[in-house]
Amino acid sequence: MKNLFKQFNYALALLLLVSACHDDLDQSPIDPDSFTEEDVFANPNEAKGALAKVYASLALTGQEGPSGQPDIANIDEGFSQYSRMLFNLNELTTDNAVIAWGDAGLQDLHGMYWTASNDFTDAMYNRLAQTVSFSNSFIGNAANLSDAAVTQYVAEARFIRAFAYYNLMDLYGNVPLVTEIATTLPSQNSREEVFTFVETELLEIQNQLATSGSNEYGRVDQVAAWALLSKLYLNAEVWIGQPLYNDAVTYANNAITSTYSINTIDANGNGSAYDELFLADNNVNGAQSEFIFSLNFDGINSQTYGGTTFLVHAAIGGDMDPNDFGVNGGWGGIRTTSALVNKMGTGDSRALFYSAGQNLEITDLTTFTDGYAVTKFKNLKSDGTQGSDAAGDFVDTDLPLIRLSEIYLNYAEATLRGGSGSTSIALDLINELRERAYGDTSGNISSGDLTLDFILDERARELYWEGQRRTDLVRYNYFTTNAYLWPFKGDAALGSSVANFRNVFPIPTNTILSNPNLQQNTGY
């Protein structure tokens, strides 16, 4: 059974960690009278069940499955799922994606004219706040159990909390830093303080987590801490004004030399396996060898209208046949722009686009056939059979949040930015990814081709729709400036620059109104 939540007795965890949503980073769990914290944390086995809810806070949206009893109020439950919000904020705001739907505030994202009352920036803030709350509850309660296994569980919950704060720092800048359940309104911390917290947490837990490759699939090990540290240090110059590229190289190298590996041979023994990273059996077809941290989905046991269910269904429309993707219908929503399509070279297997009946150039953002469709995610297994949900509503495909190929790219970029890595190793790493993409060495580059702009384009080719793009463009100072334009950037057909304050999103208006300790980000 692939699904982490079923393995961890998910139903039991729900009884403990049901939470009401508050508009800050201090959300107190509410326990039913019939079930107490003492019951759930009675022994290590029960504590392991509660850990599932910490992981589940990033994958699921409520207590009943796809809808009903949502964790977050005042937004459609399907919209509120973490990776769906990550797509909206980190992909839809960039050259990688547009959307046809007219929900209030949604078109604002690609047009880059969102306000502090945008439902989607609000939902992401509250989703991450809830993950912090669940993590704090688990850490506080499990710490009372003296057991080696529980020490590891606590380290995993601390990783999830650090990951949530990594996202909050990236997306919102200065946010409250809350590490325990409290009844007082939290104060606001600087981005530098949050950065230091994330760094310190990851350094402290790296040796408390399971060793490389030794944990259950879907749970993090020490390589996840190293990988997240490499991401943290790669962005340090933007976030705290300090170039920490030596550290980015060090921790990228730790991950690269671990037991994880790039999946280069597909299940049929062929030489190109990129597409199998995003199929319904990517937990067993070899793709899992490079998944350092993933959200696990199961069409029967972990149903949501976010996650890969969203990425598959919403990308189908026009002349596309849903049966080719293992689902029962398309939602006619998300496509990509010519900016991404034109980055792909002839023969690059990562160019997973549907063009029949689609226009490469976009005239109308609300028309699905304007813009190439993306066929990257499917609810089909490597043998072509459908995922576990016979009705075709919900998708089995797991979603990598950090995979080894990204860490290859981190190493190369940090090296070129002055880090202590080897340029020859960086070149070899990039060419390993390109050999998988092309199936041979025809796409390989030479040392003279390895520039920062090439790496940025390679990140687009390798990682599109995986929640990375906005962060990358901000790091290159391309997100808001006129140094790089794409269709409908700044709400202009040919693209235009926007004010630099949009490099971060606003603290939600409701949060500001409910907590006088918080100050809104500049420009909002």
Would you mind describing this structure in some detail?
The protein has 524 residues and is mostly helical. It is 39% helix and 3% strand. It has a two-stranded antiparallel sheet. A two-stranded antiparallel sheet has the order 2-6. Strands 4-5 form a two-stranded antiparallel ribbon.
Descriptive terms for the model:
two-stranded antiparallel sheet, two-stranded antiparallel ribbon, 6 strands, disordered N terminus, 19 helices, 524 residues, mainly alpha
Mean pLDDT: 91
| Strands, total number | 6
Assign a percent range to the helix content.
25-40%
Largest sheet: 2 strands, antiparallel
Task: Assign the structural class, choosing from mainly alpha, mainly beta, alpha/beta, alpha+beta, or little secondary structure.
Answer: mainly alpha
Count of helix runs = 19
Q: In one word, what is the shape?
A: globular
Our Rg estimate from Cα atoms comes to 22 Å
Instruction: Please report which band the strand proportion falls in: under 5%, 5-15%, 15-25%, 25-35%, 35-45% or over 45%.
Output: under 5%
Widest sheet, order of strands: 1-3
